[in-house]
């Protein structure tokens, strides 16, 4: 049996930017092992598999795989999958709802001049603030010194809105650019609270990179050791929720324009919204543009 796939670049408005994603359509009947093998074959940070929903009131069940394992939730896979399904629909719906291991994920379709240009997800879980990690240990994971880690707003801490990340603020744009993953320090630090990745950011954004509010990077285990992700929606959503929770604003909506992937040649733009009610984070949203890149067919052994 043949399986159709489409690849897209997510959180960008141009080809070869953002974060690439493979979306395997009509994935019903594939085993977990087959899905993992397909994701490993694509060798993207994530691959999604679209299946019929278990509840007909939802639009699809979406399973998300890295090259190493299945994960309960991720950002750019939801944005990219929603974009693909909307572009295939004769009359795209304004909102899709996906069943995932982390829960239900609503995704709004973004349009311009009548065409689908991207999507915005709502995080499936409330903000969780988990373990603190020592600044020196965190800096070692990034091949930096403890003085490069900024702790006046928050210490390095694992946070999640569906997938956990170690959240770190750096003191300067220069430190962000100099960071390199250190395998030995990663091994001493992870896994912790279900996390194996570091998301680090700076508010020190030079004039040439504005109107961005934040520049960020993310290191995580890949197919052949530690690697960098050019746009991480789940981590960005967690960061936006975390920063909003620290903000003194009690009511209203906080927005951030976050850049990622710039230092690896795949510039990405992630747009976040966090609604606060009564001083608490009520909902977290992250979205951006998408560009269709490739389309093809898979042939699987034993299926013809």
Protein described:
It is built from 6 helices and 18 strands. With 304 residues, it is of the alpha+beta class. An 8-stranded mixed β-barrel has the order 1-2-3-4-6-7-8-18. It is globular, with a radius of gyration of 19 Å. The mean pLDDT is 96.
List the helices and strands and how they pair.
Blueprint: E1 2-10, E2 19-24, H1 32-42, E3 47-51, E4 60-65, E5 70-71, H2 75-88, E6 95-100, E7 103-112, E8 115-122, E9 128-132, H3 135-141, E10 149-150, E11 157-160, E12 164-170, H4 173-178, H5 183-189, E13 198-202, E14 214-222, E15 225-228, H6 233-246, E16 252-260, E17 268-277, E18 280-299
Parallel strand pairs: 2-3, 4-6, 12-13, 14-16
Antiparallel strand pairs: 1-2, 1-18, 3-4, 4-5, 6-7, 7-8, 8-18, 9-11, 10-12, 11-12, 13-14, 14-15, 16-17, 17-18
State Rg.
19 Å
Envelope shape: globular
Count of DSSP strands: 18
* SSE pattern, N- to C-terminal: EEHEEEHEEEEHEEEHHEEEHEEE
> Which structural class best describes the helix and strand composition?
alpha+beta
- Distance between the terminal alpha carbons, to the nearest Å? 5 Å
Contiguous uncertain segments of 5+ residues: none
The portion of residues assigned to helices is: 10-25%
Mean pLDDT across all amino acids: 96
Strands across the major sheet, in which order? 1-2-3-4-6-7-8-18
Strand content: 35-45%
Question: Can you summarize the main beta sheet?
Answer: 8 strands, mixed, barrel
Briefly, what is this?
The chain is α+β, with helices and mostly antiparallel strands and 304 residues long. 19% of the residues lie in helices and 42% in strands. An eight-stranded mixed β-barrel has the order 1-2-3-4-6-7-8-18.
